Amino acid sequence: MSTFGVKDVLQFGSRILFYLALLGFTGWLLWLRWFAPGEKTDPSRVRLRQWAERLQQLYLIAYILFMWAHMGDLIGDGGAEGLLRLFTQTTVGYAWLGGLLLALLSFVVLYRSVFLDYIWLALVWFAKSLLGHAAAFEPKSETLVLDWLHLAASSVWVGGLLMLLVLWRTDKELGKIFLPRFSTTALVSILLLTVSGVLTVFIFLPDVRYIVETGWGKLLLVKTGLVLLVVVTAALIRFLYRKNSERGAGRLLGVDAVLMTLIVGVVGVFTYLTPLPANEPMNWHVMGEKIHMTAQISPNVPGVNDFAVKVWLPEKLGKPKQVIMKLQATDNPEIAPLVVPVEYTEDVSFEESFGLKRHTYKTRGAYLPYPGHWKMEVRVMDSNDDETVYEHTFRVY
Q1: Which residues of 359-388 are buried (b: 16+ CB within 10 A; e: fewer)?
Q2: What is the rounded distance in angstroms from the CA atom of residue 245 to the CA atom of residue 276?
Q3: Measured on CA atoms in the order 152, 153, 159, 163, is the torsion positive or negative?
Q4: How far is Cα 91 from Cα 97, in angstroms, rounded to an integer?
Q5: Residues near 267 by Cβ (< 8 Å), separated by ≥ 6?
Q6: Which contiguous run of DSSP H or E holds residue 360?
Q7: What is the pTM of this model?
Q8: Which pLDDT tens digits describe the chain residue by residue (397 residues)?
Q9: Residues 390, 396, 397, CA angle at the centre, nearest 5°?
Q10: In sequence order, what are the residues at sequence separation of 6 or more whose Cβ sits closer than 8 angstroms to the Cβ of residue 245?
Q11: 342, 325 in Cβ contact below 8 A?
């Protein structure tokens, strides 16, 4: 069982902080353009701009921390040469440099024109998309577009909720004006998040049932449950606001903020996990009174694998007369079983003998052509024509 150490805490913590800073700042920047009241000298507008600058600084710090926490895994023992290779020969390195450059350029180009702000936001979200699962799955163009939309909608919701919380505590009258505008836009954002998220899941997972078989999928279900709670909370806030219950609406805003933080926390963790279940080598051993058998498949993936059958028999019986391995795709029972042509192989490796003589049969080939549920059948016939049949079911992802 793997341990969870300081390095893991630092990596997951930096990812969560990075997502909070990214979504909070980019969303705040959008709402600053959409909502900020009055002229540039208006006190409320100045305060919102000051908050934007604080979030901007936090985003740069979080980005650098995020890079530093994960750089060691990508460089390995390569040292300076590995670092140079990372930033000159890999997509991740290019995306990191681009994102860092954009974070630094934000102090030069932002707040000057709406057009420049929108261009900067689009590029930041695109750079982030290149760092996630979207850049690893085909069709890449569709996954990148969906991830970009997901980030944009998330930013609108997170940044808007953050601005509403600040206004509710510093300028409640302005917060009351902002609430209905944010509420409607947030609903649209949640709908866009739902659609883009569902489409992405269908692209990532060849079988939707994988959701309950991986840590990534289970965290996705947790995230989905939290989003549903957000929708319910948002509806209650809107209802209480219309009923002029400011205190009740304010309390629920706090709940909404906690749910938002939990969602971003889940995202910071599950984006670090692979959506697909991991295949592991199969090592199936059966003990018997007069015969033992081990069947092995490695690496146990769709395509070419190494197959082995090991049989332990009393030495007086000699080598088995026949060893047969068959594989049946149980998802398609109409397809005839595949015979794996294992052949006798001299095996000098040391292994428990159980007081018996070991006989090894091996082959290599594409006898697991596609993922799914499989049934293995192994038949061993000894020199006395006594046959022992073994059956085992397993799954290949």
Answers
A1: bbbebeeebbeebeebebbbbbebeeeeeb
A2: 46
A3: positive
A4: 10
A5: 16, 19, 223
A6: strand 357-368
A7: 0.80
A8: 445 678 888 999 999 999 999 999 999 999 999 997 766 667 888 899 999 999 999 999 999 999 999 888 878 776 788 788 888 888 888 889 999 999 999 999 999 999 999 999 999 999 999 888 777 777 888 999 999 999 999 999 999 999 999 999 999 889 989 998 999 999 999 999 999 999 998 888 888 888 888 888 999 999 999 999 999 999 998 888 888 777 788 889 999 999 999 999 999 888 888 888 889 999 999 998 889 999 999 999 999 999 999 999 998 999 999 999 999 999 888 889 999 999 999 888 877 777 789 999 999 999 999 888 999 999 999 999 999 999 999 999 8
A9: 165
A10: none
A11: yes
Q: What is the DSSP letter of 272?
A: T
Phi, psi of 34 (to 5 degrees): -85, -30
Tokens, residue 39: 């002229």
Cα angle 260, 154, 209; round to 5: 85
Give the three-class secondary structure for 382: coil
Contacts of 301 (CB under 8 A, 6+ apart): 279, 368, 396
Q: Which two tokens stand for residue 130?
A: 């290149």
Residue type, 44: S
Q: Which residues contact 157 (CB under 8 A, 6 or more apart)?
A: 27, 186, 189, 190, 193, 260
Report the b/e string of 128-138 with b at 16+ CB within 10 A: bbbbbbbeebe
**Measured between alpha carbons, how far is 356 from 349 in angstroms, rounded to an integer?**
15
Say if residue 307 is exposed, middle or buried (CB neighbours under 10 Å; 0-12, 13-18, 19+).
buried
> Residue 219 in contact with residue 165, Cβ under 8 Å?
no
C-beta separation of 356 from 315 below 8 A: yes
How far is 117 from 128, CA to CA, in rounded Å? 17
CA distance 220 to 329: 29
* Closest to 179 in 3D by CA, of 251, 234, 233: 234
Radius of gyration of the chain (CA): 29
